[in-house]
Amino acid sequence: MSVETQKETLGFQTEVKQLLHLMIHSLYSNKEIFLRELISNASDAVDKLRFEALAKPELLEGGAELKIRVSFDKDAKTVTLEDNGIGMNRDDVITHLGTIAKSGTADFMKNLSGDQKKDSHLIGQFGVGFYSAFIVADKVDVYSRRAGTPASEGVHWSSKGEGEFEVATIDKPERGTRIVLHLKSAEDEFADGWRLRNIIKKYSDHIALPIELPKEVTAAEGEEKPAVEWETVNRASALWTRPRTEVKDEEYQEFYKHIAHDFENPLAWSHNKVEGKLEYSSLLYVPARAPFDLYQREAPKGLKLYVQRVFVMDQAESFLPLYLRFIKGVVDSNDLSLNVSREILQKDPIIDSMKSALTKRVLDMLEKLAKNEPEQYKGFWKNFGQVMKEGPAEDFANKEKIAGLLRFASTQGDDGEQVVGLADYLARAKEGQDKIYYLTGETYAQVKNSPHLEVFRKKGIEVLLLTDRIDEWLMSYLSEFDGKTFVDVARGDLDLGNLDSEEDKKAAEEVAKSKEGLVERLKTALGDSVAEVRVSHRLTDSPAILAIGEQDLGLQMRQILEASGQKVPESKPIFEFNPSHPLIEKLDGEQNEGRFGDLSHILFDQAALAAGESLKDPAAYVTRLNKLLVELSA
């Protein structure tokens, strides 16, 4: 054993203490995952060494055969895991094994569900996999040396997981990291070759470097114990380089769990090898659930990048557009340089070609999922629908394809579920209908009961109901689908085209002409509150509504701009009234202009409330309404 110097005892960060308590006392239903997490970390350490050695070959220190070794000692009740990867220096050890990013810990704690099996799988996703060692061990020793540093700068980290750890400097001739788990008395089942082999085959068969276990060799009587022979227990070949026909579904699923640090199987995957002008392999996955940082557009994202099977980058974001940031997977190129960087990736024309092809592949995968597994796609949409709605603005080339994948609530449903695709909508459209009608609003109840829908209910025309905050912004980028234009039923002067008969149109014109006097009186009474007053063709039951001008911002967009501190362009609504409604007929016959003004403003404010808007002067509305109630009760 090396002489230890510069020994000190340090306390764990508060978050680590909480986590260790959780690991030791709660997340124990699937104990074997500790080995998966430690092997995954060792694999990352080897990948990092491979990458850094491209620029500094001396880091390999003559030992270019990279591997992970797992051994055990039944008598000592220990399991040891060793890698010859990048290793850690003293500062690395204190940073990586003594602290966790606060946000990662908070999100980890927040995502716990109370289901031990599921919760225990979460640990890798939040970068806290090392601490799973304490599920089975009551003491953990880590011996490490960073590649490129002298043997005298090795470091020994030790802890019983009780709130503090010791760090000392040691001599360590080999680079890399050795972790020794001193098993709890009830966990000695893991100090067994057959048990360890099964866990490695189950969780880590896909790891693209050898994972070795000692061969079970018995010495003949009287002979000395032979030197340890090692055998590789995993396939040790990059899964994405193998032909699809040779890879089982279970292998694809386990590989996904490894790269995504997820515990659920993916919804779908696509494995392809491209040959010809460009040569690359890709393995892309659609997760079953959203990651905790999905809506943080600046959060790390992207595919694992390999060049000729050499790991280069963990989150290469240049291969897919931002709206597909939830896609996990690997891309392995033969055409990129091994010393590629993020900056070079952004400027390389090869990347543009690969990005275009990979994007199309993901959209094809989602189309197939929507067509063949509608229930699965429904789950996908709940998790990732709002992110997909960013697509039409970001990806003009695939706008039609993305539009086909969008899902909305509609007047055909009664629960607000977003399950209606645009193709389904057009398949149900009325004969002669050449428009796709929609209405945006803050809540499903508000839009479903909106007066703007009255004429559509009367004629049995389906309207899409859009209530996500992003929807109005989305529709500003979607002008048409399958040759049919989108029409906001609350905007401009509604024209139902062929869905209105010539008789209907003629009758509407005659009514409008007969109410010109009322229009002028309302304009005078409402003054600067409105841009225009006109007879409505949308209403059958309500007395009045507020329509939005063709070029004006709707309520959703105004709220988004206000929330981001931007100046909102001033606009005034269009006041439309229903000439056949009793209130409007009463208003038309009102001779007292003061009373006419009060009634007009009450109708205007009620229309604003029905549209989901806040009243500019609620007190004035209440005063007018009370005055009217007093008159009626007199």
Q: In total, how many beta strands?
A: 22
**Unreliable segments (pLDDT under 50, ≥5 consecutive)?**
none
CATH topology value of the largest domain: Heat Shock Protein 90
State the secondary-structure class: alpha+beta
Tally of individual helices: 22
Q: Helicity range of the residues? A: 25-40%
The whole-number mean of residue pLDDT values reads 84
- Whole-number count of domains: 4
Describe what you observe in this structure.
With 634 residues, the protein is of the alpha+beta class. It folds into 4 domains: 5-232, 2-Layer Sandwich (Heat Shock Protein 90); 239-382, 2-Layer Sandwich (Ribosomal Protein S5, domain 2), CATH 3.30.230; 409-499, Rossmann fold (3-Layer(aba) Sandwich), CATH 3.40.50.11260; 509-633, Heat shock protein 90, C-terminal domain (Four Helix Bundle (Hemerythrin (Met), subunit A), Up-down Bundle), CATH 1.20.120.790. It is built from 22 helices and 22 strands. It has a 9-stranded mixed β-sheet with strand order 1-6-5-4-7-3-2-8-9, with helices on one face. The protein has a 5-stranded mixed β-sheet with strand order 10-11-14-12-13, sandwiched between helices. A 5-stranded mixed β-sheet has the order 15-17-16-19-18. The longest helix is centred in the middle third of the chain and has 24 residues, at 349-372. InterPro entries: HATPase_C_sf, HATPase_dom, Heat_shock_protein_90_CS, HSP90_C, Hsp90_fam, Hsp90_N, Ribosomal_Su5_D2-typ_SF. It is found in: Cytoplasm. It comes from Pseudomonas sp. MIS38. Residues 560-634 are annotated as: C.
